[in-house]
Amino acid sequence: MIRARHRFVRLFVLIALVAAGAMVSAASGQAPRTARSGGTAPTVAGNGTIYLSGYNEKIAIIDEATEKIVGEIPLASGIPGR
């Protein structure tokens, strides 16, 4: 019985938070600004470097501006993060 009540309370809180967010959004009177509506500039890549692990026992080095793989780091220990 306590578990059912706990689930009900969690569901009620979730619904209340979603409703409050919707009311705040509606009260602002503005539609969300997106790139399609012309409200904001398109997303531009940065000038950083991304190190991305994968299942091929390597870490890929990706240039953020060009989104191209610029190098790889081979691993002797197997899959990264394990």
Describe the structure.
It is a single chain. Strand 2 and strand 3 form a beta hairpin. This protein is flat. The two termini are 41 Å apart. It is of the alpha+beta class.
Ordered list of secondary-structure elements with their pairings:
Layout (H helix, E strand, L loop, with lengths): L1 H27 L20 E5 L4 E6 L4 E7 L8
Write a compact overview of the structure shown.
The protein is 33% helix and 22% strand. By secondary structure, it is of the alpha+beta class. A three-stranded antiparallel sheet has the order 1-2-3, with no helix packed on it.
Helix/sheet category: alpha+beta
* Weakly predicted, low-confidence segments: none
Radius of gyration: 23 Å
Q: What is the first-to-last residue Cα distance?
A: 41 Å
Which key terms come to mind for this protein?
82 residues; 1 helix; alpha+beta; single chain; 3 strands
